[in-house]
Design a protein that fits this description.
By secondary structure, the protein is α+β, with helices and mostly antiparallel strands. The protein contains 15 helices and five strands. It has helices at about 10-60, 60-65, 70-85, 90-100, 115-120, 125-140, 145-150, 155-160, 165-170, 180-185, 190-195, 195-220, 270-285, 315-320, 330-350, and strands at about 225-235, 240-250, 255-260, 295-300, 305-310. Helix 13 links the parallel strand 3 (about 255-260) and strand 4 (about 295-300). Helix 5 runs parallel beside helix 7 and helix 12 (about 195-220) packs across helix 15. The protein is extended.
Length: about 350
């Protein structure tokens, strides 16, 4: 061997190991995506077949047609008890409509999940529904992207516009990041189908607990008179116990301040429930020299957080004149919720513990 030539085997080994690592990453990522697509395909086919069986049963004669009014509830009472909430009456109704809206199974796009098709069922126009289905499959839209394109009337605006490129550019800005296997294990629809709803509840409970922990610290750090009372504060009527997520007493305002965290969109039931909590606190816990209780509903929705004050009619004047000077604004609370959700999402992404 030429004594003047030095061969560094470690360089070649490092390059080989780097390429091996790259190949293994691709192998694992592709395997996860195939597993996800396989479960999606099986779920879609199963939901379509369930819908077909229900429709064909209902079309089997006048006696069955009359029975159809209570058919779904009857089926759901047995199926949901055995297989979980993924087969309750509401979901069975979706499956029936799914079959009626897409009667040719071979025309379904295998790239789409059951959640995609659930979203497509909201589109009443047949042509629009087919267009959204094909675009979602061809462009690889996530379910969130599909929801946004439907809600912004992408198809209808394309038909009506003379500037199609401008509409398409705007629509591309609505696209969400592609779904990952980590998103898959958090999808409550998929978890219900697999009979694992408890996993979804656990993940959601972890999120809610972290949000409440940081909201509690945020309010105490504001320096506006908040004194912590309790988490999951129990308040009871004659026949039932209720639990309020977070209760403070504000010594500047001399009143209780209640917080209730909801996931998903704000509903009238949520508002009514908080109004009930406020009345019960006033009736059962409020001292003679205390001011009226105020409630705050926090909806940590996946797209946009919502904050709503619950003020009883008889307390509106004192809220406007005194409470608003001390309590955090809806925008302050919404910003804090959004900030904390972003931090939690980043922690999950960088965590060394993988769920799969």
């Amino acid at each position: 061997m030429n004594p003047f030539i030095v061969i560094d085997d470690t360089v070649e080994a490092d390059e080989g190991a780097s390429q091996l690592l790259h190949n293994l990453r691709d192998l694992i990522q592709n395997a996860r995506q195939r597993a996800l697509r396989s479960v999606d395909a099986v779920q879609v086919q199963t939901c379509w077949e369930i819908g077909r069986h229900i429709v064909e049963f209902e079309q089997g004669g006048s006696a069955r047609a009359e029975y159809g009014a209570r058919l779904l509830q009857t089926l759901a009472s047995s199926l949901a008890a055995e297989f979980g909430r993924g087969f309750d009456a509401s979901n069975l109704r979706h499956m029936r409509v799914f079959y009626q809206s897409f009667p040719i199974r071979d025309a379904l796009r295998p790239e789409l999940s059951w959640t995609h098709y659930r979203t497509l069922l909201r589109v009443e126009n047949d042509s629009a529904r087919q267009w959204y289905m094909n675009e979602a499959a061809g462009q690889g839209w996530t379910t969130r992207s599909l929801e946004r394109q439907i809600s912004t009337l992408y198809y209808e605006r394309l038909l009506a516009t003379s500037d199609r490129p401008a509409v398409e550019r705007e629509a591309r800005g609505n696209l969400a990041v592609s779904q990952t296997p980590r998103d898959f294990v958090r999808d409550p629809v998929m978890l219900e189908f697999l009979g694992l709803p408890g996993v979804g509840r656990l993940l959601e409970a972890d999120l809610e607990r972290a949000l409440l922990d940081n909201l509690q610290a945020f309010l105490l750090e504001l320096g506006r008179g908040f004194a912590f009372v309790a988490r999951q504060y129990r308040i009871s009527s004659e026949s039932k116990d209720f639990y309020i997520d977070l209760v403070f007493y504000n010594y500047l305002l001399k009143c209780f301040v209640l917080f209730d965290l909801k996931s998903g969109e704000l509903t009238h039931q949520d508002i009514g429930q908080m109004d009930m909590y406020v009345r019960m606190m006033d009736d059962l816990k409020r001292a003679p020299d205390d001011n009226p209780t105020v409630g705050i509903i926090l909806c940590a929705d996946k797209d946009a957080s919502v904050v709503r004050y619950s003020i009883l009619n008889e307390s509106e004047q004192i809220f406007a004149s005194k409470y608003k000077l001390v309590l955090p604004s809806e925008e302050e609370l919404r910003s804090e919720l959004d900030r904390e959700r972003r931090e939690l999402a980043n922690r999950v992404k960088t965590s060394s513990v993988d769920l799969l």
